[in-house]
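hey can u check if this looks right to u? its 340 residues, i copy pasted from the old doc so theres a chance i mangled smth
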Amino acid sequence: MSTKQWSLTRLLSRFWYLLLCLLLVFFLGWYLYLVQPAGDGKRVYGLTVPKGAGFVQVARDLERQGIVRSALHFRLVGRLKGLDRRMQPGDYRLNSAMTPVEILEKMASGVSDARKFVVPEGYSIYQLAELLEKQGLFGGKEFLAVCKDKQVLQHFDLGAKSVEGYLFPGTYLIGFQLDVRGLVMEMVREFRHRITSLQGQLDQSGLSLHQVVTLASMVEKEAVVADEKPLIASVFRNRLKIGMPLQSDPTAIYGVRAFGGTVTRQDLKRKSPYNTYHVRGLPPGPIGNPGIEAITAVLQPARTDYLYFVARKDGTHQFSRTLQEHNQGVRQFLKKGKKR
């Protein structure tokens, strides 16, 4: 090989070596750029990934919201890390200070940032409104407005003035895309789903669904011990059969305050269409949202001839057949001037 050829070969070697170094630096810089966060964290976004959502669409959404620098780069990082196919449906609170890898790992974990909201058995719409506002989820007035919205009532064909009684107790996840209307409708749908299995018993009960739910709401408010729900239900149904006023204490304060176990004589005298000390038969609607046990208790009450019950100090009740027996229990367990 001549000196000239050797020099040319050496020059070409140096050129390719330099080009390779430049490419390595470029790809290293490009990769480091990919894994850097898009900002300082001031931009926060609640991402909802529904079932069946495509990774490409999610990447575009994150770019549009300023959470990642580039949808294309985000997809490449996902492919390089093997996380693009591990995305789980859920609600994720993201911010612009998170790296693409952190975002991808969070979506792959499936650990949702949706807020949990627990609907206790027996709570009225007024108590739920207060609870939602206290937890900072929705405004109480907004919630009550939806509960009485005619379009919502017509959608479920409830034939009532509100959804009271039809919000099924349980735990609900409030995602970023769920508004107060969606929450109310989800609760009613859950009620419809749960009541389906009891349709046969409902048809044989001789009561309408609204009557059953109304009675169940009273049973739920009165009962402390779950085993007593069929007994309490039997008292109410026995009274209905003979046309005897139901005289349920929680009905006297519905819409005024939460039932805490005691009512005053003034409460019992309050004029209200729900106060069963003044109206015969059932009140116009439920006074709370009963659970499945209370509903079942109304459909399958205990077979008794009880007409009265009074609360003992341990939360259980004494059940009586006659007024004389009942009055003895009242004197034994209750303070003068109050009734439980």
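The first helix runs from residue 3 to 34.
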